[in-house]
Amino acid sequence: MHVAVVSSRVDALEEVFAGALKPHIPEGVTLRFYADSDALDDWGRGAEIALGAPDVLAPLLERMPHLRWVQSTWAGVTPFFDVPRRDYQLTGVKDIFGASMSEYCLGWVLALERSILSHAQAVSWQPRIDRGLSALRVGIAGVGSIGVAVARAFQPFVQEIRGLNSDGRAVAGCDRCFATSERLSFARDLDVLIMILPDTPATDGLVDANLLDALAPGALLINGGRANALDLDAALRAKASGQLKALVLDVFEREPLDDDHPLWKTPGVFITSHTAAPTDIASIARVFLDNLQRYQRGEPLQGVIDFDRGY
């Protein structure tokens, strides 16, 4: 069984598979590693399985006619939807980014609500009393596996946690959940809005001027999901008016953000260069090997992506 591994981080993946995880590669399975699309040879084009980053692997789908299963190394899989082909199973990686995203979101809320950044830059005695987190109403837009982990991380600290998903179904960690059709009720008087939304047509511009106006004055917005879901111009207007006191932005429609982009120097805007939940190569490899064993046994794979829903 041929597995083509295609990734710009191919050296790290090859090291993991050749090291601690080598004994777990099933007998009869051969992995070959490719650093980019230009390196793909006849062996790779004949592979039945592929593992890789969507931005590198998706353009190769039409050149790999024998593919039956593709394992993405990202939580988001948008590049695959730009390719018409649908005659294969696509799996994403779930349940491995929750801890790092929770650290990111909780860290920024603490930094801004407890004035940690201001104190770190102080050059004179500046005693001040912050409101802390206990009275905060926190909303998490996008309560899949990562959003649930974030909600659970905030539970001991805040007054209320609301979740937003497609149908309003209840999820662990949230006091209340709302459907996207109820997004303004979800947002009403929130002190903190955390976005962990996927990139789908249904989420385009979901967080717009109307939703931002529904937040509590001086709210904090954190976007650790996908850039398409946020109307950035509306968010910047809300920041300028004081409706938002700060924006923490990890993602943008076009990345990397140019060095001379004015956002780098906009007060109250914090840019984290798509590092909110970094990919752990060893965890990705373990997810893949678990699914590979399922594939060989003819069992359902974990993390299967629904092409119609987009996640």
UniProtKB/TrEMBL annotation:
UniProt keyword terms in alphabetical order: NAD, Oxidoreductase
Keyword Oxidoreductase: yes
Domain D-isomer specific 2-hydroxyacid dehydrogenase NAD-binding, first and last residues per copy: 123-276
Top-level taxon in the UniProt lineage: Bacteria
InterPro entries: D-isomer_DH_NAD-bd (IPR006140), NAD(P)-bd_dom_sf (IPR036291)
GO MF entries: NAD binding; oxidoreductase activity
Pfam families: 2-Hacid_dh_C
Gene3D superfamilies: NAD(P)-binding Rossmann-like Domain
Keyword Disulfide bond listed: no
Entry protein name: Phosphoglycerate dehydrogenase
